[in-house]
Design a protein that fits this description.
Number of helices: 5
Distance between the termini: 44 Å
Radius of gyration: 24 Å
Number of strands: 6
Strand order of the largest sheet: 1-2-3-6-4-5
Structural class: alpha+beta
Shape: globular
Strand content: 15-25%
Helix content: 25-40%
Order of helices and strands: HHHEEEHEHEE
């Protein structure tokens, strides 16, 4: 079927045997006609191609490592404070809880935001990272009207260029929190 599509678009035929010897990859028939010419061209040059780099996260426990620190609140369920995998750190959602007591630092979003970011900083530090390593954050708010107040506090913690970010209002957060923030950092 792919060869029929290639003929109808007047694409040159690909010698699969030659392709296999130049670039030993497992390619599906559907993408061979599209990717094949690029593979063939890149295999002619003396410089190796890096077009097909693997970006998958491994589940191999020798590569996947849980991060745990007593300087941040313990996980409230069957999850880790953070996971290191393939030089990337995935920090679970942090709440504005005091690590020693497990109680909220305050009932207002400003106090909880400060504590969330302090807790996140401790997890980052335990992982060998810091706020400048963070490339993506996700903020969950109980009330989107708190967006401006959260931004003012958030800006104090993340140097320029600030991480990519998404912010959502949600129906409810664990323990009736006002805010929860998760992040991804490069190690």
């Amino acid at each position: 079927m792919a060869w029929t599509a290639a003929r109808s678009f007047h694409m040159p035929t690909i010698d699969m045997a030659a392709l296999r010897t130049r670039a030993p990859l497992a390619v599906g028939v559907g993408c061979a006609s599209v990717a094949g010419s690029g593979l063939w061209r890149s295999s002619i040059s003396s410089k190796p191609s890096s077009r097909f780099a693997c970006l998958a996260t491994s589940t191999d426990t020798r590569i996947k490592e849980a991060v745990k620190t007593d300087k941040a609140p313990a996980a409230l369920g069957p999850y880790s404070q953070a996971i290191k995998a393939n030089n990337v750190l995935y920090v679970s959602g942090c709440l504005g809880l005091i690590p020693e007591t497990g109680k909220f630092v305050s009932d207002d979003v400003e106090g909880q935001t400060e504590q969330v970011l302090k807790n996140m900083g401790e997890i980052l530090k335990a992982s060998g990272a810091d706020y400048s390593s963070v490339v993506k954050t996700t903020i969950l708010l109980a009330d989107l009207k708190d967006f401006k107040a959260v931004n003012e506090i958030y800006a104090k913690y993340f140097p320029s260029p600030a991480p990519a970010r998404s912010t959502f209002q949600v129906a409810a957060l664990p323990l009736d929190a006002k805010i929860e923030i998760e992040c991804i950092a490069a190690l």
